[in-house]
Amino acid sequence: MPRFYCPAPLACGQVLELPAQATRHVQVLRLQPGEPLTLFNGAGGEFDAVIEHMGRGAVRVRVGEHHPVEREARREVHLVVGMPANERMDWLVEKATELGAASIQPVLAQRSVLRPKAERAARKQAHWLGIAIAACEQCGRNRVPAVREVLSWDDWLARAARPATAGGERPARLLLSLAPAAPPLREAAPGDGPVCLLSGPEGGFDPAEERAALAAGFDRATLGARVLRAETAPLAALALLA
Fold first, then answer.
1. pTM, full prediction
2. Where are the domains of the chain?
3. Running along the chain, 242 residues long, what does each successive block of 10 average in pLDDT?
4. How far is CA 61 from CA 1, 2, 57, 182, 237, in A?
5. Burial class (CB in 10 A: 0-12, 13-18, 19+), 75
6. Each residue of 97-130: pLDDT tens digit?
7. Burial readout 126-155 (b: 16 or more C-beta within 10 A, e: otherwise)
C-alpha cells in the first residue's frame, strides 16, 4: 500500500488535504478516489486513510485507524559525517535512513569536497530532509531521522564538547579510524546503548581534527584494514551497530 508522510496532527475520522510533496506523489501514481493509502507524521505509528477527492492541485483524504507499529532499529545511532561530494551525500542520507539512523549531522571538515555556504547549505539541508522522508515512505519507517543543519568543524566540535544534560543518557562516542591500535567497532561499542558515530570525508579527517575529536571524548574504532569510501564507511558501521 502506498505510504505518505504528512507532518500534521492526525486522528481517526479527520478529513484533510495532503501536503504538496505527497499530493504530487499521489498524482504520479495515478491513485483514484476510494483507494487506500497509509499516512505517518513522525510522531509514532501509522494511519489508514482513503482518498476522497482528487483535484488538479489538491488531494483530500479521510484518516482511518491508527496502528502503533514501529520499525526503528534496536539501537539509536547518530551519524556525524564529513560530507562527501554531491550525489554521494544524497545516497548516504537515503541509505542511512533505510538502515535506521536516528539523526544525520553534516560537517564541513578540512578535506570536505562539498562546501556549501549559508543559503545553499540551507537548501541542501531541505533537500536531504526530502530524501530522508522519501526513504521512510519506501522502507516503512514511521519516524523521520533528524537531518541537521550543516556546521563547520569548529561549531560542531564546540557543541560536541558540551556535557550531557542532567538525566540524559550520553551516547558512546566513536571515531571511525584506520589507526593500527583502534579496536573493532563491535568491541568499541558493546551493548545496545546509543552511539554517536563520527566518519570523515574523502581522505579522512586531518590529524588536527582527529586529535580534537579524541580530546572531545571520542574513541577510535575500526571497520578493518580495507579503506572504504566516505559514503560507504558510515553505512557499514551503521549496519553493524543498528
1. 0.92
2. 3-67, 77-241
3. 95 96 93 97 97 93 97 95 90 98 95 80 94 97 97 92 58 92 93 94 93 95 94 96 86
4. 15, 13, 14, 53, 40
5. middle
6. 999 999 999 999 998 877 777 788 899 999 999 9
7. eebbebbbbbbbeeebbbbbebbebbebee
Q: Which residue has the cell 570523515?
A: 200
Fold adopted by 77-241? Alpha/beta knot (3.40.1280)
In this structure, the strands spanning 146-147 and 103-108 are parallel
> Hey, how many other C-beta atoms are within 10 angstroms of the C-beta on 197?
27
Sole residue written with cell 530524501: 131
Domains 3-67 and 77-241 alike in fold: no
Architecture (CATH level 2) of domain 3-67 = Beta Barrel (2.40)
Contact 5, 136 (CB under 8 A): yes
Residue 64: all three cell numbers together: 482511518
